[in-house]
Write a structure and sequence with these properties.
InterPro entries: Ketoacyl_synth_N, Thiolase-like. The chain has ten helices and ten strands. It is an alpha/beta fold. It has two domains: about 180 residues, Peroxisomal Thiolase, Chain A, domain 1, CATH 3.40.47; about 120 residues, Peroxisomal Thiolase, Chain A, domain 1 (3-Layer(aba) Sandwich). Helix 2 packs parallel to helix 4 and helix 8 crosses helix 9. The longest helix has 17 residues. The C terminus is likely disordered.
Length: about 325
């Protein structure tokens, strides 16, 4: 299916007030990460236009959300309650959110998304996996509209990675290019995601950078990028052996490529995809990210509403 991005929305935890973004009633007791993704999705839908989502019946609307730390702080608080006052003192409003799937479920309820509702949690790449998996579901006929994004909540101070924790959300609306043309809508461009696994032991070996370079070339080829055509990169990486190997591969493919420090979650790569769509360069742009555990993803952003690589189900 030829999908294009028509709506982009993001929110930052700094200065965020759910009452301004969502309304004063019905949101107070939602965990912050759920509030963030609801607000980002609301912005994306406003950006896309009034009929972009509702042109499809509820059964043909789907959602896919990635997160790594949406529930961590809440789980810590629940643990303290259970070991202290007892399980009977857990809040009925927040107790269901022990399940990570609940953080995106309100999104489906809010916008009547009955096609599917997915939550992805792979380290660092979960947001990009949400795009990939959601697009695959649309290609299979499960839906014709996709709200996809990433949301994170700040980690508790004693949690590993707290010094680089993220808080906020990004949401994108994807729909068929033909539907956009029919309603006279505007498209930012196309996105396509490819994921692969780079074993940490291989990444740390002398052949690690070479293996990463080969996997990167294969991913770009699978996404339809032709060697020799203009392509810029943003690499969102940490200092782990996997991050360093992928960083070397990106630097070899595009000397001078932008490299930004990865946060503890999956928000930064999605934010870079959103920025690439908004900036509308005159050439393709790749966002590459990897986790210390080996999970790696490449998102190819092709500008414009026509031509280029479609948002694929690969």
């Amino acid at each position: 299916m030829d999908l294009v991005v028509t709506g982009v929305g993001d929110v930052d935890a700094d200065g965020f007030d759910f009452r301004d973004e969502l309304g004063r009633r019905g949101y107070k007791y939602l965990p912050s990460a759920s509030q963030y993704v609801l607000a980002a999705a609301k912005r994306a839908l406003v950006d896309a236009g009034e009929d972009a989502l509702t042109a499809a019946v509820p059964e043909l609307r789907g959602a896919a959300v990635g997160t790594n730390s949406a529930a961590t702080a809440l789980h810590h608080a629940m643990d303290r309650t259970v070991t202290g006052a007892g399980a009977g003192e857990l809040s009925p409003a927040t107790a269901p959110y022990f399940s990570i799937n609940l953080f995106g479920s309100r999104l489906a309820t809010e916008h009547d998304l009955k096609g599917f509702n997915l939550t992805l949690t792979s380290p660092r790449i979960a947001g990009l996996e949400a795009l990939q998996t959601g697009a695959r579901a649309l290609a299979a006929g499960r839906a014709s509209r996709l709200l996809a994004g990433a949301t994170e909540e700040a980690l508790p101070e004693d949690e590993p990675g707290a010094d680089t924790s993220e808080a906020g959300a990004v949401a994108l609306l994807l729909e068929p290019a033909a539907a956009v043309a029919e309603r006279g809508g505007r498209a930012y461009g196309r996105i396509a995601v490819r994921t692969f696994f780079l074993p940490p032991s291989l990444a740390a070996s002398t052949g690690g950078a070479g293996a990463a370079a080969e996997a990167l070339r294969d991913a770009l080829a699978a996404l339809g990028h032709r060697p020799g055509t203009p392509l810029t990169f943003t690499a969102v990486l940490d200092g782990s052996p996997v991050g360093e190997a992928v960083g070397e591969a990106v630097a070899a493919a595009a000397p001078g490529a932008e490299r930004v420090p990865a946060g503890a979650g999956c928000l930064a790569p999605m934010a870079r995809v959103a920025a690439a769509l908004r900036n509308r360069p005159d050439h393709a742009h790749a966002v590459v990210t990897a986790a210390a555990e080996g999970n790696t993803a490449v998102c190819l952003v092709t500008p414009g509403g026509s031509g280029g690589t479609e948002a694929s189900s690969r």
